[in-house]
Amino acid sequence: MSSYEIRTVGDPVLRTVTAEVTDIDASLVKVTKNMFTSMYDAAGIGLAAPQVGIQKRFFVYDHGENSGVILNPQIVDSDGEWVFEEACLSIPGLSWEIIRPKTIHLVGIDLDGNEVSIEADELEARLFQHEIDHLNGVLLLDLLDDDNRRQALKKLRDLDLRRTSNPGSDSGELRLP
User: Fold this and answer.
1) Marked catalytic residue, from 5, 20, 131, 173
2) How many Cβ atoms sit within 10 Å of the Cβ of residue 22?
3) Candidates 2.60.40.10, 3.90.45.10, 3.10.620.30, 3.40.50.300; CATH matching 12-166
4) pLDDT 10s digits, 87-145
5) Distance from C-alpha of 129 to C-alpha of 34, rounded to nearest angstrom
6) Would you call 173 a catalytic residue per the annotation?
7) Domain segments of the chain: what residues?
8) What is the pLDDT of residues 63-72, one digit of tens each?
């Protein structure tokens, strides 16, 4: 399997709302297998199509207990609050405490064209919400209050300056908004 480069903050593809998947074919199945490879290579538990430059509404996930591909996902119900330190493969090296609903009900379609209905809580619920945010052009930075967002953008600029002044120190590219 080959893997894709994971797009990082500043790449406009991460800010675009995705189009629904209308055809499930061998090409899509191959793309999802390559996305799993990219996700595992980056030590992630979820990866949305825009993170690899694909403007379609789907994501792959594997958090140890469950794994799969969800096409055209929607959250139809949510409840509670859960604060948890959240990171993103598209914002490498940074994480923040984010408040999200503790439980959700997600619906979508699997790669066989079957309807999927998942009641998820805590980490799995957070994972699904995070990936759906990507499908809607939303990044973790958008969920921060103004002070934390300013601090995060400063950290990202500092990281970018370090990479620019010492290009061999990190092979990842960081582009800022």
Assistant:
1) 131
2) 9
3) 3.90.45.10
4) 999 998 899 999 999 999 999 999 999 999 999 999 999 999 999 999 999 999 999 99
5) 22
6) no
7) 12-166
8) 988 999 999 9
